[in-house]
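Subject: for your reference before the review

Hello V.,

The reviewers asked for a structural picture of the protein, and I figured it would be easier to keep everything in one thread rather than splitting it across files. Below is the amino acid sequence we used in the manuscript, unchanged from the supplementary table.
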Amino acid sequence: MESKRVTLFAGHYGSGKTNIAVNYALWLKKSGKPTAIADLDIVNPYFRTKDSKKLLDENGIELIASAFANTNVDFPALPAETYSLVMRDDVYAVIDVGGDDRGALALGRYTPFILAENNYEMLFVANGYRPLTRTAEEALEVMREIEAAGGIPFTAIVNNSNLGRETTAEDLLASRAFAERLSVLSGLPIKFTSADERICPIGGVEDLFPLSLAERYYDVND
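And here is what came back from the structure prediction:
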């Protein structure tokens, strides 16, 4: 699987983008690439990238997140280090964008630098089993709202359709029609299909990306 220097993950609340971003950063690092991950999610108070700080530290992955993440302080501040992350070329950057269009607004301040370098992927994380994105048409509407707010067009889709702990291989296979319909409507390819590593491999899914899921992910699925 090919990767760009900057990979952004965005999607509807509860799509699972944060867990995918962490797993993708781990995959980049294991592939021999110097890797850093930034949490731009200033809206979601639940499962955040910083919840995986110990795991990221153990694997030598730099984490850039608000100093107020995982505290009771409701102050949507983003660290200045994020600017250097999108402008330097000595590291592969993974960026966890906030949910929906409201969360994507924080991306706007970095958009000019990302577009100027033009070495990025903007991946839409879609979960066809979540409310408000149960159909490809609903998911496409969320996609367009995020693009308008963040100023960066999506380049591909990640099918992360799941039912949390109860997800089976059959559930994932059933979601393929949803993902393929979204691909047709948006004109974008499916980058990969993600699934809990405990139900992998899955026959018939060639683009599978196994995930190691954090415990909090099961409770809030983001």
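For the response letter, the relevant points are probably these. The two ends are 23 Å apart (CA to CA). The CA atoms of residues 54 and 151 lie 32 Å apart.

Happy to draft the paragraph if you're swamped.

O.
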